[in-house]
Amino acid sequence: MEPTDAAGDVVAEPNTAVQAGADTDTTVNKDTAPETQVQSVASDRADANTSTDTAPAAQSGADTDATPNEEEEQRKKRAATRRKIAEEMFSSENVHHNTMLLVLNEYLLPLRDADLLPEKKLKVIFQNVEEVEQVSGCLCAALGECTKSWSDDSGVADCFTPLLQQLASAYTSYMENYDKAIRLMISCKEDKDKFAQFLEEVKRRPAVDFQARDLESLLVTPIQRVPRYLLLLREYLKFTDSSHPDYAKSQEVSKNLKKMTSTVNASIRYVTCSRLRTIQVPGSPANTRKRNWTAN
Description:
The structure is a single chain. By secondary structure, the protein is an all-alpha fold. The chain is built from 12 helices and no strands.
């Protein structure tokens, strides 16, 4: 697939708990990818396990003493913040999608052509990254259309719902095999000089202009997507009135996505035990937990 050109994680720590990511263009530009860092293992795991289902809905009314004008002003602020979060969902997915395109175009396909590793090993290291890229592209396109024509009646749930089965299939499979993939990739770097040299050369190419540009960091980005969805949906629900038609649907999306988080934690157990460190990753959002979404 060709990259989308829309406006733009927690991504990457091949050995930490998960946080989610933000994203843009097949050749990802540093100007469009937000600068961030994956936080500590403890805080990331807390975020990954945070339930979006219990996020309180924003109240449709203000204080009982508020004047009609004040209530209307508060309603507009909530609506603006809700839209801002929806746009962040899109930009985040855009970066992630382009990261997957970069993995395919700069790493997997050239490695196949160069015959530096047997196809069997490439399938283990890169797993079902093509499937992840495809479903991410579909979600990115849906969110792009949604935010482009956004109104107070709009919602993000309808972007996720038709893709829930594909998301579960792609990400669950990727997460279940992630530990094995990273182990083999590290082993090949140590044993295959030409493979290690290839990875270093790709890191120096302008097309791979990330804060963290090694393959190990790029491969962790799919692991971070589900927790990222949950974090953004939790914030989105806080600014969505319970009477809004998208509120109940977004809660249902959150419940379905949350079923995958236990797989996330299991898949990165090796990571959290072996490298308790902070690592910068491509396209990761700023600390979402502390982010102030309130519109000015």
